[in-house]
Amino acid sequence: MLTLRAQDASLLVAPESGGAIAGWARGPVRLLRMPLTDAVLRGDVHGMACFPLLPYANRIGHARFPWAGKTWHLRPFPGHPNALHGVGWKRPWDIAALSEASVRLTLAHDPAGPEGPIDWPFAFTATEEIVLERDRCRITLSITNRHAEPAPAGLGVHPYFPAPGAALQFQAAAVWENDSTNLPQTRIAIPPAWDHSSGRPIGDVALDNCFVGWRQPAVLRWPTHTLTLTADPMFDHLQVYTPPGQPFFGARAGGDSGRGDHTRHYLIVTHGDVSVRGKRFPFVSPPRIVPGSSPAGRSRTPCSGHGSMPSSTSWGKTRAGR
Description:
By secondary structure, the chain is mainly β.
């Protein structure tokens, strides 16, 4: 477990637990959720504050997909029929570089290794770079195809936010209804009860749905501070997760609907090409730590490179209270 510091900002990183973030705070204000009970001790990545998603995000339907004339079978998420969120969160990451306010982690996946191809059939290497500043945190993910042939790839990050007192505001064109296995099934107009265009308190409605045609940004408000979520323009979907009765919720940018058809929604990456470098979706612009404070700013990094898809996360700006 590592602690990054930048003045009164601190970030707790768990390389040994899927490269996850266990917590992020600015002074007394917690900007991501607290880890669930014993999550850090047990290495429970899904109980932490944020974790990387690669080489795919969301679900792959029935844990199988067609590629290069073959149907590939994956390990389903425990208790579910679908594969979920890739490999990165399942593995320990190595520390490649470390300073007081930054860390670069690396991961190598070899399908010929002890896990076999059941987690993912194509070799890749990945990096996660986390840089903490007083007014923001930037996460940059990259993945490089090490398979001898072209392979699909995608990635993102999965933040959780504190639910008590929170409200979420964003605009989108439509939303996907899910089937019984939580795969998006039918694209529909946004029902009034799901409409967040004027802001809606977390807890009003239970969602685990993908909103399409997301018009950035998304704004997250609490009585003491405000966070703003933006993304590279290619990320025009917003996945919203508001489990009933839980002290947390999720909102994360994406470039696909998570429909489970992996090859139709992810980039094709040739051997040695870097498929993701730099999506920043700064979701924080918080606190002046006063009621009604407004977002202080945002930043973004355009996608670059052959077959590239942005995937960096920047959480800033943060300003001290009066």
